[in-house]
Prior knowledge:
Elements: E1 5-10, H1 16-29, E2 34-38, H2 46-54, H3 62-86, E3 90-94, H4 97-107, H5 112-121, E4 129-134, H6 137-147, H7 158-174, E5 179-183, H8 188-203
Parallel strand pairs: 1-3, 1-4, 2-3, 4-5
Helix pairs in contact: 1-8, 4-7
Bound molecules: thymidine-5'-diphosphate.
Amino acid sequence: MEGKFITLEGIEGSGKSTSLETISKKLTEEKIDFVVTKEPGGGPLGPPLRNLLLNKDAKISPQVELLLMMADRKNHLEEIILPNIKKGIWVVSDRYLDSTYAYQGGGRLLDISQIDKISKILDLKDPDLTILFDISPEVSLERAKKRSDLDRFESEPIDFHKRIRETYLTLAERYNSRFAVVNSSLGFEEVELEVNKVIDNFIK
Length: 204
Ligand code: TYD
């Protein structure tokens, strides 16, 4: 049987990385074979592309940014996601295609139909489950700032992040059969409980 494909989404500082540990623990307890990966930069092409995309001094237009994200994703899908799934191994990815709709569509205001077209041409697989960590950018950007220097995305104004959040919520409504929304402004233990519940329901 094929492995399942789970993606984690959310704005900067929404707690995806912390919850990745919760999910890993849960899948291990359930004796499920899985790998954890991330975008951008999860495939062999990753490190140089990721450095370029996050570099504040890089001059990259929204359309070029979109194409780089999509190239990174196709490489990640071909080399990491699909080979694992075909072997029956579950794949948990920190960000995937919904990030492009939210950031390049919502954030950079690119026409959604451009993203739809490229995604179709590249034959991108849909995730089986997407967990959206929802939080207001006012709260989450404070968290991100404390963590490290801000990268090219994190340094964008608050409205950019608000549009990203709204786009994510719209996607979660439209594709509600694969989306689960977790309220990330709750305390650590409550979020952990929610995430475990989502995984439990999914496994059943
Ligand atoms: P990263 O350091 O991985 O951020 P995070 O820890 O928040 O996931 O940087 C990834 C950045 O790239 C993040 O700001 C979101 C952005 N991004 C896009 O704009 N489009 C995409 O398709 C993807 C996958 C990421």
